[in-house]
Amino acid sequence: METDYFLAGICVVLLCLRGFASPGVCPDRCDCQQPQRLTCANRGLRFVPPQSGDREEVLVLSLGGNFIGNISAVDLGSFTGLVRLDLQFNQIQSIHPRAFEKLYHLEELYLGHNHLSEIHTGTLQPLKKLTVLYGNNNDIIEITPGLFDTLDRLVKLRLDGNKIQSLQDSLFKDLDNLRYLHLESNQLQHIHRNAFSKLANLRFLNLSRNKLPALRGAPTFAHLTALTTLLLSENEIQHVGNKVFHNLKKLSTLSLCNNRIAHLHRGTLLGLSSLKEFLIDGNELEDIPAGLLDPLELVEHLDFSRNRISRVDSLAFIHLKHLRVLKLRNNVLTSLPGDIFNLNNFLRDLDLHGNNWSCDCRLEKLKRWMSATHSQGKLFDVFVRCHHPATLRGTPLDHVNSSQLQTVGNWSHLCGSHSEHERNQGAKMKGDVWQEKSGRDDPKQQKRDKTRQGKEEAGIQGDQGGTEVPLLVHSFKKDSHRSKSPTDVFRKSAKVGGKLSRTKLEKHKTTPSHDGTQESASTTLIPPIEMFDLLRMDHQGAPSIITDPCAFNRHFITNVSVDQVTSTTVTVYWATPGLSPILDEVHYRIMFDRFGKSDRFPRYVYSPGSSRSVTLRELRPDVTYMVCVEGVVSGSVCQVAPRDHCSGLVTLSEDSVSTANLQLVTVLTLAGNAVLLLILGLVWLGRSLKKRLQRRKSAVHVRHMYSTRRPFRANVANTASTDFTSYHSSRPARLVPPELGDLIEFPCDRVHDTGSSRREIDLPRFSD
């Protein structure tokens, strides 16, 4: 034992001496706690730490976040075993051409966020094992030809955030294994047709936020046959030539958003047979012609938002069988062909908000399609609000009756041949133009217009005049799940200093209906659609204003529950206590997602403001879902997830009976068991009573056998006479009646009397 303790002490001393013998292994202000890693990041260093011993064992050197200005030829000479070198977020202005001369094993080099304006040719030549190179966010103006020679193992290259103006011929010729190339946020104006000629394995190319004026030649991307993502957003592209993307057979994402594209030729998208996401929002497109999108056979996501689109051909989406998301938000559309989406069976998200919709007979088929899709529980988002005529402005198309979709004037032929009219008509028909033309052509119509105009003026004029505010009137039945459309739209004026001073909320009225129930009607004065405010009554009875959908969720939505769960469907219920009469700008969005799954797939169902339940369809069996309900106020939703109004559910399996109510089955089973137990108990009780009665009838009580107060039974008499023959024979027969002769009486005083004299007198002695 003493020897072991002695050896342990020697080891400890040797370790201490080793630490004191090499005090320079870990540089000052650096961290060497982790083996094979030297961390000197964010230490205020202005130079690379000086050499102190052999550093071949160091694999990772971190010098980021310091104030290093230059990298000399000898600063990194001793780190011959480095695999990763981090020099980001310094002030490096120059790197000596021989700075990386001995870093033969280096695989990752990070030079981003410095002040490099040039990297000399040959500087990276010794790094033959390099796979990751970051040169982003520097001041590089031009990429020196031959800079990436010998880097045939490079996989990811970042040059974004520089000042590169052009890409020369065969600039990346030796990068055969390059997968990711970032060139965004530069000043690129010209790309040589052979700049990407050797990048046959490139998967990702980002050219966003540059100054590219056009995409004219097909050879520019002709050699990128393995490319899956191409980002060209936020450039200055005005023209895209035919067959520019013809050879990109594997491309799945193409972004051309925020450019100046006014027209796309029918051959522009040829070759993109694998494209799934096409983003061209924020441009100047005026129409979507037939055949333009036909090559996109597998596309799922289309975004045409923020353009100038006024016409969409009825055959524009006919070949897009897999289309799921279509965004036409913030364009100048006035109508859409009614059968335009009939073949897009997988369409789930349709955004039509922010257009100048004319609610006439041309939208009747679209309204019918929307209603049918809503009834099927399809998951899609449709906000179509009337812009013309003025009497329906701001009203959702869902709430407009078919009788209100009337064509003004002599334009009824548009409803019968809408598709042909859309192909030939270039100008947009405004509601005012229709009214003016109808007034000129039809004297009767002109007279009706004057009469209606007089009535409107009489309704508009108030006591003082001023700002016009539309007054929406809603009528809906009690306990109804569907609210009727607005029956009328009035205008009143209220002017206080030229601005809207207050918002009136008229008293809620209740009137009896024809069927005996009560109909409630309320008249709410609200600002125009641009200044929409949701009114509600606070606890003091004064109207307060809610425009924030988050506040709406917090104050109104309660009691979220689920019912009627099957393997593929479920019905979601919620309540809105204290909500004032339903306004057109209120909708509900029901989100449901697979709970506890790594592959999250949140989906949405939109319901009108009058609904308090919705049926979700196309669920998966035996899957746990989280269902949440939130409000949509004036087309806006709360950015915070509505986790306070959620409910969970588990769908049934496919082999189970979907229509069976498990609770009812359980109750019936328990009731049947209780009845069975009751019957068994009654049977047992009856048998017990029967046995007891039988025993009582067959039993002979002693009092019956020996009592002198009851007549003697024959069978008992025979037995008694037989047993007591000797006694009866000694008594005189004449003194005892025959029927009472066999009765025996045992007086207590005689039985217990042991006196021999009395026994001899009254009873004869007989032997055993």
TrEMBL record:
Disordered: annotated span: 416-521
Transmembrane segments annotated in the record for this chain: 664-686
InterPro entries linked: Cys-rich_flank_reg_C (IPR000483), FN3_dom (IPR003961), FN3_sf (IPR036116), Ig-like_fold (IPR013783), Leu-rich_rpt (IPR001611), Leu-rich_rpt_typical-subtyp (IPR003591), LRR_dom_sf (IPR032675), LRR_TM_domain-containing (IPR050541)
Pfam families assigned to the protein according to its UniProt record, in alphabetical order: fn3, LRR_8
Keywords, in A-Z order: Disulfide bond, Leucine-rich repeat, Membrane, Repeat, Signal, Transmembrane, Transmembrane helix
Fibronectin type-III domain span: 556-655
GO MF annotation terms: transmembrane signaling receptor activity
GO cellular component: plasma membrane
Residue stretches of biased makeup (Basic residues): 501-511
Signal peptide residues on this chain, from the entry's feature table: 1-23
Bias (Basic and acidic residues): 418-458
Top-level taxon: Eukaryota
Family matches, as SMART domains: FN3, LRR_SD22, LRR_TYP, LRRCT
A Gene Ontology biological process term: inflammatory response
Official protein name in the record: TLR4 interactor with leucine rich repeats
